[in-house]
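dumping this here so i dont lose it
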């Protein structure tokens, strides 16, 4: 690797380096302690210094220096990990530089030319490099160390590196922490003691910042049941964030594929950079805070002041700019923020250069004044260009402002326009009114206390709108939250839900989209639609709206349209309950976009097959209970009870446990504050029932306490009639339980637990997501092992290690590409055994590491035959059960079972009697395409062999017949095996030679095989003569006599060969001769004949009955698996 020329003083460095080559202008040196001899004590000390100190010397053990005869100054210009690498640089200098240097007159000119040339070479390399770091030179050095120390595949992308201490017990090891796309690596070398740690991100269970008496602050990593601590980091918080981002990226890409959104900056694992991760994280935080679509990326951030008219002062904050939105959030504690869609901006003016201010005018005669913007001119031009307006918009802008009706709120206007456009052709199909207005229209003349209270709430909100704006550009402040806590008026609920969730922007930018989905999805029959039909009448059955066809039809259309939009989710239980409440207060199309906002942004990963998001938030809830309710924790040390009982709280936003008139108040808070509101309310519920829960004797009693509490939660201000409200509890229950007003409960939740920050919740989500997904994966492993252990003789610990190796091999082909077939095949919805499968290439590598006789290399045709033999359903994929059954035969099977496996290996579908080399190479080249092209892929590219959510109808009868056949399948006996013909028998003999190759008794085993082969052929010869009534014609006699000779010649040739490849070549002539005689003399052997003959050879029997050290084999495979992948 060429280095930026750096001055080096060699006066005291001769003891550390040994000169190997030199000429008039260059010196090639080797570091002591490397290469031949190792350097003794000096080499040991040098190796320690190289690791601890951050210097160029530790980069590589070889270097090239430039010097001139009349100067004492040397310049380092190249380094190398291996001698071959440094020799290439040396030869290049000899051929391209040495001749040119003779034309210069002075040493200064020579040095200047050499330095310029080296810098040019580095610049040329940098053009094709993907590394975008602050100090490319140091990063290149670190990359060289990373490749040298860990021997990972060259595709592995180093993201960043840090100096730190790794704690082994109570002893710290100073070294270097390397964070790459797929691995966390650490290296230390101190006085001959080398510490090397490689952990893949998908193996991590816990990742958190901790502190204790010894370590003031450290990063804790839990993987493989072992705790790892890293401390003494200069930028610990930055390091932790990068580790968290990489772990989250790996988890989403490899495990939680349903939630993985392909982001351009992160779509290719070979191009992940530190800057890309940071930008992606900031964009995610930006989208979450302002409730923007996933497509929006944070492009610019400007610090500025915003004039707040309702407070008559400037508030300090930041302008955040994306492709389609201009947002502002205060930083002075006022909790003020505003979202301005670019489509609403009608003009941008630079009002005052001295104060560096710009004025952004939006529809509705409103303007936002930003001042003290450092680069205000560029910001103004950027906003203009994104809005598509000219630099002088005064006249057109003012006329456009006048043309809009200010009295109508923007959100309503957008809704009406979008609804009109979407319902133009199908007004009869899509409902344009909220169900509550149809089934419970407000009576304007009704003056009862509840309606008066409702009118007062409406008046409060109207005052708020006049001060803070209405619609998409409304200011969100503390006062907004206060009004939410008091309760939202029935008439404004749908509008505010759309605004707070960001669904109003989704609908405005996708006119007609919902109607198209409805037209496409209605009438289709899928598993999702079947489940939707089953649950339609279970959705708020007590409400009149869902006792009629109007409500049921609207609910069906929304759920079916969403299943069509997002087939990976399709339909999940609890979606019907949530959607039915949305339909009560929002128009049908609005309800659809609200459902999109909830499922895809506000509650990520909730509504999928494994409800990962809900499980993660339950873990977050447990952490909050430990922090905020210590008294409850002391009494109930096992908090898993709260996880199980709170699942419905999170999935349905308390709708399933609270009366509908109270639950909608919770939904109000959720749309404003997100999951934080649900967590706060959950803590308030437990706090309210603290005394009753503490005295409970078991979980059932605690559940009863909570259910009675929820039954007594009321909404005293609800204007809904009794026909809509949930039936009241009995008088006896009311006597024993005092009713609780939902507004008071929500207010108490905000007062006691409002200090919980959304940022902390998101951080806790990331931390717990690792543990939740790994727990689910561990459950999958235990289920698979339980099933497989009934079929094989391997013990549970061996199966556990085998599963880890099998799963890792599956992931090794996924680490460096987004289009890996194995990654496409992984589907958590499949049966446990089918979730991880190996194609031929992955199988051949792993099987070659584990099979006991070393007769299958990863490129051998034998690997292909084994693969086809154990692939029972011939789908081009091997599951864990199939893999273990084959290994179990080799490890624990009897001599007869092992021989039967080898015998079947040479029968179809394993062995095919033509094109041995051709078929293996074609399979190797096409194996990645086989499992994809051989099937009709669904739209998402995932092959599924089990009933799938959201796709076509499933023929359950076919599955039942398949399972019945598997149950009734009788065990195969040796008499069921077909006879082996001539070409197959020749290959069978060659396989035996391959198995015996390298054994201490190799020659004895070879002679035994040759003897068995001759004996079988003679037996066949005698049998034929006894069966034939007369002597055969003369012409056939040579053929008959050459057949045994052909086989024996093949055996002799195989005995001299050392590899399966050479055996195939050497015996090809014999095979052709034997096959040519097949038309004259058709002979074959049964398995009984082969077994009986081999049983007469004690050396062969003892060889196959020799016990296998399974633990050693597994250990070697675990140590070699990654290196073998790297060497491919």
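and the seq i came up w/
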């Amino acid at each position: 690797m060429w280095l930026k020329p750096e001055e080096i003083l060699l006066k005291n460095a001769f003891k550390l380096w040994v000169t190997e080559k030199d000429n008039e202008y260059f010196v090639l040196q080797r570091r002591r302690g490397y290469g031949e001899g190792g350097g003794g004590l000096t080499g040991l000390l040098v190796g320690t210094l190289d690791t601890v100190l951050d210097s160029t010397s530790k980069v590589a053990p070889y270097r090239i220096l430039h010097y001139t005869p009349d100067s004492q100054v040397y310049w380092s210009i190249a380094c190398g990990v291996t001698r071959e690498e440094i020799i290439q640089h040396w030869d290049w200098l000899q051929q391209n530089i040495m001749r040119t240097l003779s034309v210069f007159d002075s040493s200064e000119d020579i040095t200047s030319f050499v330095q310029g040339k080296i810098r040019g070479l580095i610049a040329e390399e940098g053009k094709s490099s993907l590394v975008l770091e602050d100090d490319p030179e140091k990063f290149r050095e670190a990359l060289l160390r990373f490749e040298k120390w860990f021997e990972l595949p060259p595709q592995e992308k180093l993201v960043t590196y840090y100096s730190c201490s790794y704690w082994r017990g109570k002893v710290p090891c100073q070294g270097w922490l390397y964070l790459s796309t797929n691995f966390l690596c650490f290296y230390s070398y101190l006085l001959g003691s080398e510490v090397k740690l490689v952990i893949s991100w998908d193996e991590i269970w816990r990742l958190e910042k901790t502190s204790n008496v010894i370590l003031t602050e450290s990063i804790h990593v839990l993987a493989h049941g072992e705790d790892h601590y890293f401390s003494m980091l200069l930028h610990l918080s930055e390091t932790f964030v990068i580790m968290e981002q990489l772990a989250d990226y790996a988890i989403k890409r490899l495990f939680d594929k349903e939630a993985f959104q392909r982001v351009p900056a992160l779509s290719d694992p070979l191009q992940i950079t530190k800057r890309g991760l940071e930008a992606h994280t900031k964009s995610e935080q930006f989208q979450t805070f302002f409730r923007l679509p996933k497509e929006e990326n944070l492009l610019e951030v400007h610090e500025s002041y915003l004039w707040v008219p309702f407070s008559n002062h400037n508030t300090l904050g930041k302008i955040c700019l994306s492709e389609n939105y201009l947002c502002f959030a205060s930083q002075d504690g006022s909790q003020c923020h505003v979202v301005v869609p670019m489509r609403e901006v009608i003009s941008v003016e630079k009002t005052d250069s001295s104060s560096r201010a710009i004025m952004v005018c939006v529809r509705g005669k409103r303007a936002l004044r930003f001042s003290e913007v450092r680069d205000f001119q560029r910001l103004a031009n950027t906003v203009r260009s994104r809005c598509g307006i000219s630099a002088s918009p005064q006249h057109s802008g003012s006329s456009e402002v006048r043309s809009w009706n200010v009295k109508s709120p923007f959100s309503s206007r957008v809704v009406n326009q979008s609804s009109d456009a979407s319902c133009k052709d199908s007004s009869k199909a899509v409902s344009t009114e909220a169900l509550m207005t149809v089934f419970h229209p407000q009576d304007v003349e009704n003056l009862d206390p509840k309606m008066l209270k409702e009118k007062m709430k409406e008046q409060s909100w109207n005052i708020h709108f006049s001060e803070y704006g209405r619609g998409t550009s409304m200011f969100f402040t503390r006062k907004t939250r206060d009004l939410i806590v008091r309760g939202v008026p029935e008439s404004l609920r749908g509008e505010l839900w759309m605004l707070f969730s960001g669904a109003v922007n989704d609908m405005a930018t996708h006119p007609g989209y919902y109607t198209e989905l409805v037209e496409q999805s209605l009438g289709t029959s899928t598993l999702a639609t079947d489940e939707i039909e089953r649950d339609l009448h279970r959705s708020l059955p007590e409400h009149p709206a869902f006792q009629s066809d109007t409500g049921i039809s609207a609910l069906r259309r929304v759920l079916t349209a969403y299943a069509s939009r997002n087939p990976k989710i399709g339909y999940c239980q609890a979606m019907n309950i949530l959607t039915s409440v949305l339909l009560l207060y929002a128009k049908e199309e609005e309800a659809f976009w609200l459902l999109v906002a909830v499922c895809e942004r506000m509650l990520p990963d909730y509504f999928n097959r494994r409800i990962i998001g809900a499980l993660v938030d339950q873990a977050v809830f447990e952490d909050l209970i430990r922090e905020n309710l210590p008294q409850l924790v002391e009494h109930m040390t096992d908090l898993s009870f709260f996880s199980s009982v709170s699942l419905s709280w999170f999935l349905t936003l308390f709708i399933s446990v609270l009366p509908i008139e109270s639950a909608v108040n919770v939904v109000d808070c959720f749309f404003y504050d997100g999951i934080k509101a649900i967590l706060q309310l959950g803590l308030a519920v437990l706090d309210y029932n603290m005394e009753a829960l503490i005295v409970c004797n078991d979980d059932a009693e605690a559940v009863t306490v909570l259910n009675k509490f929820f039954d007594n939660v009321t909404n005293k201000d609800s204007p809904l009639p009794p026909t809509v409200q949930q039936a009241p509890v009995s008088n006896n229950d009311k006597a024993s339980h005092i009713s609780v007003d939902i507004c008071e409960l929500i207010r108490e939740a905000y007062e006691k637990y409002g200090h919980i920050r959304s940022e902390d919740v998101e951080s806790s989500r990331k931390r717990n997501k690792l543990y939740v997904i790994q727990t689910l994966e561990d459950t999958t492993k235990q289920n698979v092992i339980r099933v497989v252990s009934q079929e094989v003789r391997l013990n549970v610990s061996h199966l556990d290690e085998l599963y880890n190796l099998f799963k890792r091999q599956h992931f090794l082909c996924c680490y460096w590409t987004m289009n890996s077939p194995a990654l496409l095949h992984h589907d958590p919805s499949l049966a446990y055994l089918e979730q991880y499968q190996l194609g031929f290439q992955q199988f051949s590598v792993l099987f070659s590491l584990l099979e006991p006789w070393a007769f299958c290399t990863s490129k051998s045709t034998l690997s292909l035959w084994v693969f086809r033999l154990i692939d029972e359903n011939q789908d081009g994929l091997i599951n864990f059960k199939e893999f273990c059954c084959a290994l179990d035969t080799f490890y624990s099977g009897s001599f007869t079972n092992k021989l039967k496996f080898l015998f079947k290996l040479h029968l179809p579908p394993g062995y095919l009697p033509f094109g041995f080399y051709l078929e293996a190479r074609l399979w190797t080249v096409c194996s990645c395409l086989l499992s994809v092209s051989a099937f009709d892929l669904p739209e998402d590219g995932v092959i599924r062999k089990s009933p799938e959510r959201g796709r076509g109808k499933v023929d359950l009868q076919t599955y039942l017949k398949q399972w019945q056949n598997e149950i009734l399948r009788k065990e195969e006996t040796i008499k069921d095996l077909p006879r082996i013909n001539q070409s197959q028998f020749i290959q069978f003999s060659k396989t035996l030679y391959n198995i015996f190759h390298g054994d201490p008794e190799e020659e004895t085993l070879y002679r035994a095989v040759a003897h068995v082969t001759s004996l079988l052929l003679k037996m066949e010869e005698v049998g034929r003569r006894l069966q034939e009534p007369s002597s055969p014609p003369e012409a056939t006699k040579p053929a008959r006599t050459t057949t045994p000779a052909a086989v024996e010649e093949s055996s002799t040739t195989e005995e001299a060969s050392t590899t399966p490849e050479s055996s195939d070549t050497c015996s090809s002539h014999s095979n052709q001769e034997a096959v040519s005689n097949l038309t004259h003399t058709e002979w074959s052997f049964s398995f009984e004949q082969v077994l009986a003959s081999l049983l007469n050879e004690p050396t062969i029997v003892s060889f196959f009955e020799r016990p296998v050290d399974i633990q050693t084999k597994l250990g070697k495979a675990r140590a070699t698996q990654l290196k073998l992948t790297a060497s491919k």
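The chain has 46 helices and 25 strands.
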